[in-house]
Every structure is written in structure tokens, then in C-alpha cells.
Amino acid sequence: MNESFGQTAAIARTTSGLSQEAASQLLHVSTRTLSNYENNITKVPDEIVYQMMIIYHSQSLGWNYLINTSKVAKTLISGIRFSCGISSGALGLEVSTNEFLSIRNDFNRICLDDVITPDEQSTYDKCRKTIQMLIGTGISALIAIKKEPQTRERLMAQVKIL
To answer: Which residues contact 34 (CB under 8 A, 6 or more apart)?
Structure first.
């Protein structure tokens, strides 16, 4: 992931059809503040990221924020594809689910006694990677880009929720 969070936020804003002026009004910040966020001059507070996710209709923005601001999150939730569409997200989840099902018996056998012996370690590591892939593709499918236009009415209704 080469983009900074600010760049990603700017892309999410423009994809949702909002100018900086309109978005800053909905976020209750000045246009200059929003520009500073998007240009990585000022750190974006968690609450503003949350509002951006709702207003820009972009759950992937929240995941992107976590990965760009936390080494822990980056390690735990690696493998997430932020730009996948609904069909590629669903297909990725299907493939990784099938791969998990193929190793499920080995995984259960290894974990049954709560001990991973040295001779089980390599199989366990393969199972762990398969499970990490399943988690990553599951999250990717949940935050898949929906090709649905964002209307001003829908945005205003979402802002009222805040």
C-alpha cells in the first residue's frame, strides 16, 4: 500500500462526489483543516475518520487508517485488498474458504490437544497462513467497493445519524 491515509481520504471524498468545501461542512471542520488532513500535514482524529467513513460511504477508509497508523493493525490485518469490487471480493472469499476447508481436518487434529509438536509445526504454519488469508479475504469482501452513486440526500441522512 503506497498511498498515505490523507491521499486515500481525498480519493474516497472525490469518489463519493464531494468537494472539499462540501465535505468540510459535513465533517464540521474548516476547508483548510480538511486540506491539511488530506495532505498529511495534520493527523486525522479517530472521530473524524469515523465520520469520513460514514459520509464518504467507505468502510475501507477505516481499515486503511488503521493499517497506516498502527504497526499492530498492519501486522494483524495484512492481506486485505482495499480496491476490490464486490464480485472479486466474493470470489476471493470463496477461494480462501475452499482452501481452509481443505486443511480444516489437519488444523483440528493439530489443535485438538492444545500442543503443537515440532513435527506438526510446519503443517500448523501452513494452516495459519490459510486462516490469515481467509480473514483477509473475508474483510476484503465486507469492504468491497460498491458501484452505487452517493446522493446528497443519502449523505445528509447519514450525517444526521452522527
So the answer is: 20, 23, 24, 27
Helix%, strand%, coil% for the chain, nearest 5:
70, 0, 30
Q: Which of 77, 30, 38 is nearest to 56 (CA)?
A: 38
**How far apart (Å, rounded) are the C-alpha atoms in residues 41 and 78?**
26
Three-state SS string across 57-72, please?
Answer: CCHHHHHHHHHHHCHH
pLDDT digits (tens, 9 = 90+) for 110-154: 999 999 999 999 999 999 999 988 988 888 887 776 655 555 565
pLDDT digits (tens, 9 = 90+) for 48-70: 999 999 999 888 888 888 888 88
**Whole-angstrom Cα distance, residue 91 to residue 132?**
16
Q: Which helix (H) or strand (E) holds 91?
A: helix 86-111
pTM to 2 decimals? 0.62
d(CA 104, CA 97) in angstroms, rounded, equals 10
Terminus-to-terminus CA distance in the chain, angstroms? 30
